[in-house]
């Protein structure tokens, strides 16, 4: 489809662009005290975007001469990104961390990240893939260092830039290798070229793909590309930490799934990596090793943390490992399970960070000591945090249990060669039980009971319930979500 024709299908992205421009212009003409209103502009604007995506979610086509794809798979991830952005925009209005700063540009940057993530989940061209990663990364660098008066935030931003520049450079080098080997940047042309390679090209192809994996691993916080995660998560504003742990991670997984499925697999039948005969490129083994290392290191290091925000950073690394477990299968069940897990992870992880924001507003601290007696002093917060911790562990009857169940089920269906991943994943879940329930223990069994019960402000209570309720309900009744995921598991397929 040519560029002019494509514009008629590009309404969601165009609306996001208009929202960002309106936000920037509006922020120029209002004083600092009213700049928070930009957050409401972004939130209501994204609701319109969500509706426009819903209206075209059944369309399957390419845009702008085959560089962007429009399909149900992309629409699914766009809805997740929108929901996360709206929740973060609203909670940012009530975060004391941001109270001394002008918020207009903060929300404008969130809008730009949303646009970049939309491109990321829809890219079927290496150039668009790289541009989308850079848009998201550069905006994230700025937001991580948004607390200009905080040295930890400045340090987080600097480390984010350095690690990001390194991984981006390595990935770009790998992308250039692929272009040199295949003569194209389009996924389907690359797939066709790879299918006709002889064995002599496999070494160069493997090297290029390992370099590309560096970029993917950096975005999802996979070991050994996770080094930025704990320092950036701890130093960045808590709202941004929460956002980075969900929305860019979802976009990165969508990008990674589409790349491997449409370059090294069949793109539609979900027959795994075997659809292209590349015996010397063991993708399933490479990704399996990454998954095991990621979840194991994340869980083991999380055990040693006394800062809850930093603990959740390593928890985020571990959960990236759980989701990676299903990647080696590259089947419909594997991709399906990742999509299910991401939705459930969104609620339970954002909810946990919302509690951190509440506690930080109250005490200014992030250590376990700041949570002593919290369950008695703020019962609603304590109960919600318990729900989130239990769900992150993967215990029934919570969403986290169902998410892990689908991941493990996809591995079992994948065959005997994946059974060991189920065992390792189960052991890691047991390990995570210690540090998640440690939070519950501190809230209810340490510190003195308070005679006065404190109720969080109404808006924050609603946000907690918006995340806590689905965390429980999706552990009991998840059929509507399962149907949505199943209907979204449709990729654009092109035969060269």
Q: How are the secondary structure elements laid out?
A:
Layout: H1 3-7, H2 11-28, H3 37-55, E1 61-63, E2 68-70, H4 72-92, H5 104-122, H6 126-144, H7 151-182, H8 187-195, H9 202-220, H10 228-235, H11 238-244, H12 247-263, H13 283-302, H14 308-324, H15 332-363, H16 374-377, H17 379-393, H18 399-414, H19 419-445, H20 458-473, H21 479-488
Antiparallel strand pairs: 1-2
Notes on the structure:
This protein has 496 residues and is mainly alpha-helical. It has a domain at 282-488. The chain contains 21 helices and two strands. It has a two-stranded antiparallel ribbon with strand order 1-2. Strand 1 (61-63) and strand 2 (68-70) form a beta hairpin. Helix 4 packs across helix 21.
Key attributes of the depicted protein:
mainly alpha, two-stranded antiparallel sheet, 496 residues
Quick take:
By secondary structure, this protein is an all-alpha fold. It has a domain at 282-488. The chain has helices spanning 3-7, 11-28, 37-55, 72-92, 104-122, 126-144, 151-182, 187-195, 202-220, 228-235, 238-244, 247-263, 283-302, 308-324, 332-363, 374-377, 379-393, 399-414, 419-445, 458-473, 479-488, and strands spanning 61-63, 68-70.
Number of helical segments with 4 or more residues:
21
Shape: globular
Compressed to H and E, one letter per element, the order equals HHHEEHHHHHHHHHHHHHHHHHH
Q: Over all CA atoms, what is the radius of gyration?
A: 22 Å
Number of E-type strands = 2
- Separation, N- and C-terminal Cα atoms: 16 Å
């Amino acid at each position: 489809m040519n560029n002019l024709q494509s514009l008629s299908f590009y309404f969601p992205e165009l609306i996001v662009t208009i929202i960002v421009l309106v936000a920037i212009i509006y922020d120029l003409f209002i004083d600092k005290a009213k700049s928070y209103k930009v957050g409401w502009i972004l939130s209501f604007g994204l609701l319109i975007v969500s509706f426009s995506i819903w209206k075209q979610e059944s369309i399957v086509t390419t845009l702008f001469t085959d560089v962007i794809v429009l399909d149900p798979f992309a629409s699914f991830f766009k809805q997740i990104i929108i929901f996360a952005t709206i929740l973060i925009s609203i909670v940012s209005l009530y975060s004391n961390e941001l109270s001394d700063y002008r918020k207009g540009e903060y929300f404008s940057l969130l809008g730009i990240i949303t646009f970049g993530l939309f491109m990321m989940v829809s890219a079927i061209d290496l150039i668009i893939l790289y541009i989308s990663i850079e848009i998201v990364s550069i905006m994230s660098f700025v937001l991580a260092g948004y607390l200009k008066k905080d040295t930890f935030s400045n340090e987080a931003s600097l480390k984010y830039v350095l690690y990001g520049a390194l991984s981006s450079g390595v990935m770009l080098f790998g992308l250039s290798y692929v272009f040199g080997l295949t003569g194209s940047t389009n996924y389907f042309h690359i797939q066709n070229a790879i299918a006709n390679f002889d064995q002599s090209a496999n070494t160069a192809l493997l090297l290029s793909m390992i370099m590309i994996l560096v970029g993917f691993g950096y975005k999802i916080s996979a070991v050994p590309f996770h080094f930025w995660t704990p320092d950036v998560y701890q130093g960045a504003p808590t709202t941004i930490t929460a956002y980075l742990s969900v929305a860019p991670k979802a976009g990165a997984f969508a990008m990674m799934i589409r790349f491997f499925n449409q370059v090294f697999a069949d793109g539609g039948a979900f027959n795994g990596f075997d659809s292209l005969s590349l015996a010397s490129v063991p993708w399933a083994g490479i990704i399996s090793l990454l998954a095991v290392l990621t979840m194991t290191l994340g869980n083991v290091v999380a055990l040693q943390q006394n800062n809850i925000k930093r603990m959740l950073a390593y928890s985020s690394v571990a959960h990236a490992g759980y989701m990676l477990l299903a990647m080696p299968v590259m089947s419909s069940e594997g991709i399906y399970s990742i999509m299910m897990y991401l939705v459930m992870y969104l609620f339970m992880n954002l909810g946990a960070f919302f509690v951190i924001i509440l506690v930080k507003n109250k005490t200014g601290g992030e250590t376990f000591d700041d949570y002593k007696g919290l369950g008695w002093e703020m019962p609603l917060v304590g109960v919600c945090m318990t729900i989130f911790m239990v769900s992150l562990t993967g215990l029934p009857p919570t969403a986290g249990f169902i998410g892990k169940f689908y991941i493990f089920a996809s591995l079992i269906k994948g065959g005997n060669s994946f059974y060991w991943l189920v065992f390792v994943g189960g052991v890691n879940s047991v390990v995570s039980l210690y540090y998640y329930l440690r939070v519950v223990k501190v809230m209810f069994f340490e510190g003195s009971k308070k005679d006065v019960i404190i109720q969080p402000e109404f808006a924050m209570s609603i946000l907690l319930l918006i995340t806590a309720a689905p965390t429980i309900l999706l552990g009991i009744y998840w059929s509507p979500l399962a149907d949505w995921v199943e209907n979204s598991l449709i990729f654009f397929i092109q035969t060269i």
